[in-house]
Every structure is written in C-alpha cells, then in structure tokens.
Amino acid sequence: MQLLSKAQSVLIIGAGIFGVTASLELNKRGYTVTLADPGPLPHPDAASNDMNKFVRMDYGHDEFYISLMEEAFKGWYGWNARWRRPVYHETGGLFMVHDRMEPGGFEYESYVRLQKRGYSLERLTPDLIKEYLPGVLYGRYKDGYYNRKAGWAEAGELLTLLVEDAKVSGVDVTPGVKITELSDNGNYAPRALTEDGEEIRADYVIVAAGVWTPLLVPELKELMWATGQPVFYLKSAVDAGFLSPHHPATWLADISKTGWYGFPALPDGTVKISNHGPGRRMRPDDPREITEGDEKNLTHFLSENIPVLADAPVIKTRLCPYADTWDADFYIDRVPGRPGLIVATGGSGHAFKFAPVLGSLIADVLENKPNPYLHRFAWREKGEAGIEEERSREIE
After folding, report:
1. pTM here?
2. Which of 132, 279, 281, 341 qualifies as a FRET site for 45, CA 20 to 30 Å off?
3. What is the bridge-based pairing of β-strands 188-194 and 199-201?
C-alpha cells in the first residue's frame, strides 16, 4: 500500500485540463499532490488534448459565464507573457447568422450584453463577412458580429506546458496509472485502487477523469454522460482565399442551429472544423471513430457554406468526447456523503476556455473557501430549477 507523505495530501485522478490546473494550484497552496493518469500525457483521448480550441466570452444572455471568462482572459494573457511564445492567439471571432440576429438568439443576446459591458463589437454585413472570411459563399450569412476579444489556444501544447510546470513545481506526475475503484473507509477519505492492485490513500481525492468520471463516482451516472462530437482536419491550399491574411478569425456558423465552427488555416494549410451540437451518446471506451454520416454532414455544410473547402482532403478525424451534464454546467464540488471526495468534471464541450481559472475553483472547493462562481458548479440533482444552459449549443 502506498501512503502519500504529508497530512494534507491530494490525489488527483485525470491529467486533463481540470486535473492539471488543480494540481498546480494546490501545489502552490502547499499540498502534497499526486497527479495520476493512465497516460501518456497529454492523454490522446482526453477532450482537452487537440490541435486548437476556441476561446470566447460570448454566452448569449448568460452573464455568469461572460464574467467568469473575463477572469480567464487575464490568465491567458499571463500565460502568454510567461512562456517563450504565446499559446493563446487572439485572432478575433466571427459570429455569423443566416438571417438577422433576433432577440432571444445566441448571437443577438451575446451582442447586446457584451456591448453593455463596454466591448466594441463590429456588426456584420454580407460584405464584411466576405472580407473576414473570403471563402464563405456570399450572402449565405447576412448578419452577426465580429468580436476582437476571441481567438484560439494551442490545446495540446498548453497541456504539455502545464504538465511540465507541474513536474518542475513538485507535483508527483504519474502517467501510466489507471485507477479502477474508489472505496470509502468509514469517515476517512476514499482509497484509490489501481489496475495493478496497488492502494493509494490521500486526505483528498479529486476525480477529474472527464467522461470516465461516472465509472469511479457512480453518483454521477444519471447526471452526466459521454457524447461524441465530430472533428475534421482538412488540408487547404493557403492561397485558396479561404482566409484573408489581414483578418484570420475563428468563426461560428449560426452555431446554435448548425453546430459548425472553425479555425484559421495553420501555416501548413491545416484547417480544423468541428461540430458543437447534440452529438451522439457513447460509452467512454468506445472507439473514437467518425461515421460516414458525419463525413456527409461535413461535405454538405462545406458545399452549401464554404465551397472553397468542399474538395479539400480530410487528413485526420477525431471524435471529441464531451463529458456532458444534464444542464451543461460543470460539476466542481464535494460528493455528498463521501468525505474527502471531490469531482471536477462535466466540461460539456465548453470548459477548456476557462483553463486559467479552473485550478483556483477546484482548490477553493477543497479548502471550503468562498468563491462567487462556485454556486453554479455545486452538486445538484437533475431537474433543479434556476439552471441556465449553454446557449451556443443544442443539447438533449
């Protein structure tokens, strides 16, 4: 049996964006931290491990997330200043709609609330859309707005840097360790049992295992599930006019209705296009395979909206595993009735952008510190009133 050394020891299960940021923050606060993951790191199947991820503060009428993202942006800028080159690229974001923005819609409500908070947004016309995104079919999108305070992060690179920071700072990073069971020992913290039969004890156990979390914390089984979302990587000719060299923006194509969004072409011509929609239910260990139907949906979208990419070869695909919760809010809280056990999970496809603040949220739960944002992520049962939902996406 392995017993972690100090009285205030923490075992974190899962080294995705929740787990690694928690390990850094708790280590900074003086805890002895072990970060365990079946690895390698970054884990190739982790939702947070990808070429790039959208970073935005646009959340419809939900000013809670707008405010939280304002805090997160401070952290993104701090990380860029700290490392030798930026991992967050503020290219701006195009929020396009097919007809007109209307009250109640994701884009309209985002536009109104961000303006009230003092942000300078540019209202779009078909001509401006064509200027910002030359490859789009002219007139396909008639309205929307451009927000300069948006962009994309190098997701896999960020995870790599954070894991290295954790190692250097003294976190015991242990890839190749698969936790298969948690058991309670009276009123003491849970004990973790590894696949190899080793037992690990700590004062606190934080389960940040993404879609695998309900396997270890069955109390979440009716509150959270795995949803697969298709991701495509295309090879575009850089000179094809897909993006203006002056305005390489990330873009959302009437996302609350279509789910489609994409990124600027990388220097080698790789373009990532993804869907942020209902997706399809899956088991955590199901093969991460794109279906023929997914490919047809992409082809149809491109031919109808961005024909310059319709014939671009697909060089790679991925099924991104969302850890979906019933209300699309995260679960960052103690598990009721299980002393010392904390969950940090339920990203629902929109957690990564908050990476700079996740660690402090999780650490504040562990320390029972007041935090103005934690009420939204507190343990709750399905159907509780007063819960918003992530307005850019249709969910079940």
Report:
1. 0.94
2. 341
3. antiparallel
Note whether 158 and 86 are within 8 A (CB).
no
Are 211 and 226 in contact, with CB atoms under 8 Å apart?
yes
What CA–CA distance (Å, rounded) separates 251 from 254?
9
Per-residue pLDDT reduced to its tens digit, 244-270: 555 578 999 999 999 999 998 888 889
Q: Are 199 and 11 in contact (CB under 8 A)?
A: no
pLDDT means per 10 residues in the chain (396 residues)?
61 97 97 95 90 96 97 98 92 96 97 98 95 90 97 96 97 96 71 91 95 96 97 77 60 96 89 94 94 97 94 95 96 94 97 98 97 98 66 61
Smallest CA-to-CA distance from 9 within 170, 144, 157, 165 is with 170
Torsion of CA 298, 299, 302, 307, to 10 degrees: 160
In sequence order, what are the beta bridge partners of 275? 260
Residue 93 near residue 252 (C-beta atoms within 8 A): yes
Q: Residue 304 gets which letter from DSSP? A: H
